[in-house]
Amino acid sequence: PTVFKNIGFSDTRSALLASGVFGAVKFVSTILALAFTVNRWGRVTGMAVGTGFQGILFFILGAILKSKPPHGGPIQPASIAMMAIIYLYVIVYSFGMGPLPWVYSSEIYPLRIRELGQMWFTALTWACNFATSRVTPILFVKLGWKTWMLFASLNLGGAILCWFICPETKGLSMEELDILFGAISAEQRAADIEKVLQGHADGSRLNVPPEGR
């Protein structure tokens, strides 16, 4: 409700109703994303494009809030427009930065530390969620519309970092991920596979020392 009160839904009932619709839109969008797009779009492409689009939406929202600030009383058209932008944001989030980081995190860790890596990823995610929920109301009071510009800048910066730093993992096997993240060279992996195949061809059991992940 705090977010919707910030954009002009000053009445508690209307803010709660808008928040309820927000939750419903997020739920439906997430189900659709998990069912139809997670394994079709690239992980990095989805995260980078989604985060960049979120940044653009936040810039637009901040600009509207600056030029048409709410003054209490009846809900203004500008407030409805900002509400629509927030709903569009959560749809984009549900197809991008909602599910994809969890998929990406489950793929990038070597098997020997995957449980530990997922544990820290989950803990850090919820710690950031908690911090955001505590800091955002303070930012609305201190910065007003500039809060959305801050969020926009962070999202656009994150999109750039994601696009240029994170390697794509879609469609790669665990062996290929080893090579992608430098756990083993492509030549060594090919040599190991050749040894195994040669051992099967000779009818013997050949133990190849595990390397990489």
Automatic annotation (TrEMBL):
InterPro entries: MFS_dom, MFS_sugar_transport-like, MFS_Sugar_Transporters, MFS_trans_sf, Sugar/inositol_transpt. It is found in: Membrane. GO terms for cellular component: membrane. Coiled coil: none annotated. The chain crosses the membrane at residues 15-38, 44-65, 77-96, 148-166. Keywords: Membrane, Transmembrane, Transmembrane helix, Transport. It catalyses: myo-inositol(out) + H(+)(out) = myo-inositol(in) + H(+)(in). Residues 1-170 form the Major facilitator superfamily (MFS) profile domain. Its main location: membrane. It is a multi-pass membrane protein. GO terms for molecular function: carbohydrate:proton symporter activity. Belongs to the major facilitator superfamily. Sugar transporter (TC 2.A.1.1) family. This is Major facilitator superfamily (MFS) profile domain-containing protein. It comes from Rhizoctonia solani.
